[in-house]
Amino acid sequence: MYGTRTDHYPATSKLLHWLIAICVLTTAPVAIAMSRVNPGPTQDTLYNFHKSLGVLILILMVLRLINRLVVGAPIADPGIEPWQKAVSSAVHTSLYVLLFAMPIAGYVANSAFGASTPFFGLFNLPPIIGKDEALAMQLFTIHRWAGWLLIVLVLMHVGAALYHYFIRRDEVLKRMLPRVMGGF
């Protein structure tokens, strides 16, 4: 849903975007690290932190979707080529889908595995399904591959933003920057 603004995203959209970006940019290296350390307290801590970030990402994505439906987004820059708009739309849609699907798949996989899904030590989410380790392994595999796809899409997203900022020198990136960083 697009609004009629041409100059910027609302403050709520910017805040949610950057909070989710921080979470994603944190959880990806944590996911890689947790699979490479030896089993024990450090690995447990990394897993719990990863799970907590996943729950937070899901909460923030729900808020972001509501925000997007309520306040919309600026219209696309009219100077952007149609193929670039199509790629941008595909990447953004894929990011939204993955940022909803991955935490849900992780939560269901944890439940099927019989593992807890903590939220920063404050509470554990209740299991959503019964124990089924075969299903858990399938879901963890899907979750892992979706994570790699998410990393690729994030790199494309960041690369496109930097392209607009440094090469095209247009306002596309500036519309999402916080006011203190040169945004509106």
Describe the 3D structure.
This protein is mostly helical. The chain has a single domain (11-181), classed as Transmembrane di-heme cytochromes, Chain C (Fumarate Reductase Cytochrome B subunit, Up-down Bundle). It is built from four helices and two strands. It has helices at 11-34, 41-71, 82-113, 133-168; strands spanning 117-119, 123-125. The chain has a two-stranded antiparallel sheet with strand order 1-2. Strand 1 and strand 2 (123-125) form a beta hairpin. The chain is elongated and about 50 Å long. The two termini are 21 Å apart.
Low-confidence stretches: none
Oligomeric state: single chain
Question: What's the count of strands?
Answer: 2
Largest sheet: 2 strands, antiparallel
CATH superfamily: Transmembrane di-heme cytochromes, Chain C
How far apart are the first and last residues' alpha carbons, in Å?
21 Å
The first-level CATH class is given as Mainly Alpha
CATH architecture: Up-down Bundle
Number of domains: 1
Rounded mean pLDDT score: 93
Helical stretch tally: 4
Overall form: elongated
Helix content: 55-70%
CATH topology: Fumarate Reductase Cytochrome B subunit
Question: Outline of this structure?
Answer:
By secondary structure, this protein is mostly helical.
Fold topology:
Blueprint: H1 11-34, H2 41-71, H3 82-113, E1 117-119, E2 123-125, H4 133-168
Antiparallel strand pairs: 1-2
Helix pairs in contact: 1-2, 2-3, 3-4
